[in-house]
Design a protein that fits this description.
The chain is of the alpha+beta class. It folds into 2 domains: 23-102, ACT domain (Alpha-Beta Plaits); 109-183, ACT-like. Chain A, domain 2 (Alpha-Beta Plaits, 2-Layer Sandwich), CATH 3.30.70.1150. The protein has helices at residues 41-52, 81-93, 124-135, 156-166; strands spanning 27-36, 55-65, 70-79, 97-102, 109-120, 139-143, 147-154, 171-176, 180-183. Strands 5, 6, 7, 8 and 9 form a 5-stranded antiparallel beta sheet that branches. A 4-stranded antiparallel beta sheet has the order 2-3-1-4, covered by helices on one side. A hairpin with a 3-residue loop joins β6 (139-143) and β7. The longest helix is centred in the middle third of the chain and has 13 residues, at 81-93. It comes from Roseivivax marinus. One of its GO terms (cellular component) is cytosol. This is Acetolactate synthase small subunit. It catalyses: 2 pyruvate + H(+) = (2S)-2-acetolactate + CO2. One of its GO terms (molecular function) is acetolactate synthase regulator activity.
Length: 186
């Protein structure tokens, strides 16, 4: 029997099943990335994700320092702990990147998202939509005889719950900003 033949039920590992020795637990992390505000930087950061097959759940970007020409990119991504560490390391090596923070592991943070939802309906469905909007503290920012546009802010889970309740009442369209996040405290 050669060394390449492994008996069924053996605890030995081969190079073909090394993947099973690493954690397969998928985690969601929120990353805050401070970058130069110049053309092509966002494309380079996103290219890092797409080129390696990493997933982006949410992405927001805006200039946060006008004089220093810096933008903050907030990325919500998923992967194994090893993949998350690899993403942070690769982001940190990019030239236009000044700082990478994993808000998920650095302590508590505040995460919020804004969504607009258009709900179409009349009669009892319209009344129920207004009642639920009040419970969720959503604001009606547009109203016609056949529809409402609600604005809601909160955690992604809160927005998901609101949208799920609006579906049977005539949810027609949703627009979401993606997560904006900051670490709590000093």
């Amino acid at each position: 029997m050669s060394a390449l033949n492994i008996k069924k039920g053996s605890t030995k590992h081969s190079a073909y099943n090394l993947r099973s020795t690493f954690s397969e637990h998928i985690e969601t992390h929120t990353l805050a990335v401070l970058v130069d505000n110049e053309a092509g930087v966002l494309a380079r950061v996103i290219g890092l994700f797409s080129g390696r097959g990493y997933n982006i759940e949410s992405l927001t970007v805006a200039e946060v320092d006008h004089q220093g020409h810096k933008s903050r990119i907030t990325i919500v991504t998923t992967g194994t702990p090893q993949v998350i560490e690899q993403i942070k390391a690769q982001l940190g090596r990019m030239v236009p990147v000044h700082d990478v923070h994993d808000l998920t592991v650095e302590g508590s943070s505040v995460e919020r998202e804004l969504a607009l939802l258009r709900v179409e309906g009349t009669g009892d469905k319209r009344v129920e939509a207004l009642r639920l909007a009040d419970i969720f503290r959503a604001q009606a920012v547009d109203s016609t005889l056949e529809s409402f546009v609600f604005q809601i802010t909160g955690t992604p889970e809160k927005i998901d719950a609101f949208a799920d309740l609006m579906r049977p009442l005539g949810l027609a369209e949703v627009a979401r900003t993606g997560v904006a996040a900051l670490a709590r405290g000093a």
